Structure formats: C-alpha cells, structure tokens
Amino acid sequence: SSGINAEYGLDGKAAIKTNYAVMSWLLRSCQQTVFLEIIHAATGLTKTSTLTTTLQVVGRAVVLFSVVDAEPELQTSLTCYLLMVAWSAVEVLRYPYYVVQIYDLYFPKLMWLRYTI
After folding, report:
1. Beta strands in the chain (DSSP E)
2. Which of 25, 34, 69, 83 has the fewest CB neighbours in a 10 Å radius?
3. What pLDDT digit, counting tens, does each position of 61-70 carry?
C-alpha cells in the first residue's frame, strides 16, 4: 500500500494509469501465495473458518485473474488503483492479527481495526 501511495504522491494521476503494470507481478504473486491460507484454516494454524477463508481467497482470485487481468482498460482505471490500495490496507492489518491469534494474545484495537476496515 505504501509503494502504491508513494507512487501516487510522486506522479499524481499518472500513477493510476501505470500502477497495475508496475505492481501486477507482486499482486499476482501474493494472491497465489494466499491460497496457503485455506490450508492454514483447515489445519487449525489460524483460528478462522475454512469456508470463509476459501470464499475470500477464491473471490479475490476471480476478481484479479478473471476480471482485472482480462480487461486492459480496467487496469489503468481509478477503480483498479483503489482496489489495490484497499486490498493492501486490509492485508496490513490482517496478518498481524493472525500472528496475535497464534500466540493467544488479545489486542482489542487490532481486533477492531481488523474487522472494521
């Protein structure tokens, strides 16, 4: 998210047009790795529903690989830019939350942020 926002801060609206071309390799790589979350949920490594995790992971994969990748015009739009910023912001909170859960710690503010954003 910070790389995306830094690029926007430097290049303004021009960054929206090139953002997907610059960041898509990272987004695709991360999305492929996220499929491991289904295994983590199924084996109990994370305290989350396997069904919910599967729906979220598959939903994002469909949007990324079937919609965004298939539509070059969408890749240069504000919608795609905001989608990438939103996904990144959610991940920045989600993974620390999972680490806290693994160690059975309780941070109410982190939990609130995780489920609010």
Report:
1. none
2. 25
3. 999 999 999 9
